[in-house]
Design a protein that fits this description.
The protein has three helices and no strands. The chain has 109 residues and is mostly helical.
Length: 109
């Protein structure tokens, strides 16, 4: 049974690391504010969530019950990340930040 738990934790850590790496690359490579905002809010949230769920599985398997710290951190992360991204997007729209020509549409119209 221990092998399967370690395999699951390893898989979750690898997936979380991959999502975090993709979010960081997207933040660096994407051209304007709105597309840069999209990469970290989606991919990095999934990445940190994967690492936290891996920690939850690992420490819950070693103890008697579910680790409450990881559950609370995960819930807090999944609630606050979309709200902060929405507020950043609204602030960018109010300031009418410039878009690249490749970006379609005008967000403030």
């Amino acid at each position: 049974m221990q092998f399967w738990i370690e395999a699951l934790v390893s898989l979750l850590l690898l997936a979380g690391s991959l999502f975090t790496l993709l979010g960081a690359i997207g933040l660096y490579r994407l051209p304007d504010f709105y597309t840069r905002l999209h990469a970290p809010t989606k991919a990095a949230t999934l990445g940190v969530g994967g690492v936290l769920i891996a920690s939850l599985v690992y420490f819950s398997s070693r103890g008697d019950s579910i680790s409450l710290h990881e559950v609370l951190i995960t819930v807090f992360l999944f609630i606050t990340a979309p709200v902060s991204a929405h507020l950043l997007a609204k602030a960018g729209m109010q300031q009418k930040l410039p878009l690249k020509n490749e970006t379609s549409g005008e967000p403030w119209e």
